[in-house]
Task: structure prediction
Amino acid sequence: DIQMTQSPSSLSASVGDRVTITCRASQSIRSYLNWYQQKPGKAPRVLIYGASNLQSGVPSRFSGSGSGTDFTLTISSLQREDFATYYCQQTYSYPPYTFGQGTKLEIK
Amino acid sequence: EVQLVQSGAEVKKSGQALTISCKASGYSFTKYWIGWVRQLPGKGLEWMGIIYPGDFDTRYGPSFQGQVTISADTSSSTAYLQWSSLQASDTATYYCTRYWGGPWMAGDCYSDHWGQGTQVTVSS
Result:
């Protein structure tokens, strides 16, 4: 299985901050990397697919970059509604389409 | 509008069987992969498996192979997740999700729609 490691596991930030979350794959996954946001008690929703493609309806303050083994999700200016848990997922090799362990973004 | 509507919460005892469902609407059910994701209480997302209703091709994550069965009924556009004998460790929320792309399909692959989740509680 391909292992996905996110860092940090948790992060405190303030409204208006620029935030970066990192995801590293145990082997190259080219650009088959997705980012999801999950709020408590809700299903996840996709933010970024294919490493850098913004899903329709997702605010442009979210962006993704990277290829191979190292990827980042950046939120350019945090809004209150962005406090949530973020997961990366590789869809290069299956099964399984592995998720990272998650990064919990909390209000400072 | 694409919708995935899951069956309601379940409370079961260890050793009992269970099937939960995910009814799809708003798209051609047989043309998209659909799968299941587990979330243990307070924990992260775990990929369980995926099925292509067009030919019933099914793939399981190693941790779930032999532990659950994923199936689909094209006549009702419904996907299922089945246990033959539940354990307390199966207590979790289970999400169904539709994939854009998937195994043997070219291009991007990601979960573009999700069900609301089904809470399964298993007591010993």
